[in-house]
Amino acid sequence: MVMRLLLEPLPASWPTPAPPQPTGLRGLLTRLQEMADAVRRPGNLDDLEGHLRRAATQAIVREAYFRTVGEQQDQQRRPAAFAEAWKSHLAALLAQDTVKLSGRSPITATGRDTDLAWKLYDAASRIRAEAITHATATPSKRQLSRPPTLWYAFAIAAGDDYPTLGEVHYAICEPCGIGLLRKIDFSSDWRFCGLGTRALRELEARHPALTWYTTSQYESAQSFYERYRQDSSSPWTANQCPCPHFGGRDQTREARPPPDGGALARA
Ligand SMILES: [Zn+2]
To answer: How far is CA 167 from CA 50, 142, 164, 182, 264, in A?
Structure first.
């Protein structure tokens, strides 16, 4: 929904929320759906100049968002700090006489709408915050399994609009009391939001009696796990083969290779 708001055509006028103002993600999404519907009504594109100005404004807010996401690997900003950084990028872009974005003609001061830019930022950053607050884990879905090991995946999702903010893939062996965290994967938009921690807590809650381990293909996320394990109430072991039924690492990969080669822990 953040991306929809930043990508799809905007209506000529920003919707005024009817009192009482809808609260929560659902209310906001309803308002945005009304906006999206309004823009599809015939006649609304008659005002070509206004349409172009809105599209240019949206492109500026989107650019500010992408710049902020692009800095996440280095900055590792939590949601509130992310919103502030996004705001700073937007303010810096709007302060320019002419904004030059790749793939667009230069955007002059008259070719954009500063008031709309801030409304768009407010709505989009609020949607992001709401999605993070309301994100929950979907039920574990059984995958191709090799008894006695059972293989599962679940997602961290925020309602129908965000069915997948990130995914967790794991396997368990009940006879040995062992769980294997195979992969935890969040797109760069949703990293450093506490969602990886939420996902691992959920994993442990669903299979409380297990000792967990993860394979060394997750080396690049080592610091995340190290931090996580300090607060975890479940045991985690560094042993790379605590259960014979998972086979070696090659075998676990063969059973279901990670789609992106195990680039993980964007958590
Ligand atoms: Zn086993």
So the answer is: 40, 14, 7, 11, 10
Residues 46 and 14 in one domain: yes
CA 19 to centroid of ligand 1, rounded, Å: 58
Cα-to-centroid distance, 261 and ligand 1 (Å): 25
Distance of CA 241 from the midpoint of ligand 1 (Å): 10
| For residue 241, pLDDT beyond 60 | yes
Instruction: Choose one of 134, 163, 198: the last residue of a domain.
Output: 134
Output the six-digit token pair for 67. 């710049």
pLDDT at 44 over 90: no
Give 137 Cα–ligand 1 centroid separation in angstroms: 26
Ligand 1 center–CA 147 separation, angstroms = 9
Distance of CA 49 to CAs 40, 58, 60, 118, Å? 17, 14, 17, 20
Of 134, 165, 185, which residue is a domain's last?
A: 134
For residue 259, pLDDT over 60 is answered with no
